[in-house]
Amino acid sequence: xxxxxxxxxxxxxxxxxxxxxxxxxxxxxxxxxxxxxxxxxxxxxxxxxxxxxxxxxxxxxxxxxxxxxxxxxxxxxxxxxxxxxxxxxxxxxxxxxxxxxxxxxxxxxxxxxxxxxxxxxxxxxxxxxxxxxxxxxxxxxxxxxxxxxxxxxxxxxxxxxxxxxxxxxxxxxxxxxxxxxxxxxxxxxxxxxxxxxxxxxxxxxxxxxxxxxxxxxxxxxxxxxxxxxxxxxxxxxxxxx
Length: 241
Fold this sequence. Notes:
Layout: E1 8-13, H1 32-38, E2 43-47, E3 52-54, E4 62-76, E5 82-88, E6 93-94, E7 107-120, H2 121-129, H3 132-156, H4 163-173, E8 182-184, H5 188-195, H6 199-211, E9 215-218, E10 226-229, H7 231-238
Antiparallel strand pairs: 1-2, 2-7, 3-7, 4-5, 4-6, 4-7, 8-10, 9-10
Helix pairs in contact: 4-7, 5-6
């Protein structure tokens, strides 16, 4: 059977003035007057499941503000293996760590359906160079990214935590919003790679959570699927050692 390549569609120029996420994005420090220049050249893109926003080693062409969905950030090693080092969600920026380098340091891949606005890199660099408030915002974003990566490794992959605890911690991190019970539903292979456990173990733990009523599956297609989680139950399991 021929595999259909993942879709990538440009939806045209972004309208930063009416963006409901503007105050959560990297451009939150930009005033309305400055937006007249800032949003020039920014375009909206829709990515189908498994589509790459960019690939490790490719020339840095832009940064991507995630408006909907989840993106896995993957690092490839010389032997051909890959490791998911973090997950980006609505309001996060993909490619920010490579914004002032020649090539992307990681690969960013859509998990389910993703919408992102793409800021061309040369324009982004020039705008940052002339706006001190945006420079401070980028510094805070870089610090947050470093802390998130360190936290990701320490909470999910280090030590001898039970598989149920690791899975509960991951699911809590994959919530679509901080105050909701909807959870981005990653594939078995991805969750195994993140947690450092076998795919069989992931499948068993997820099945147990569903059977116990801790997770409820939702969504009508692979690209739109999700979980609804019993957050108090997940938080209790996440604390188990």
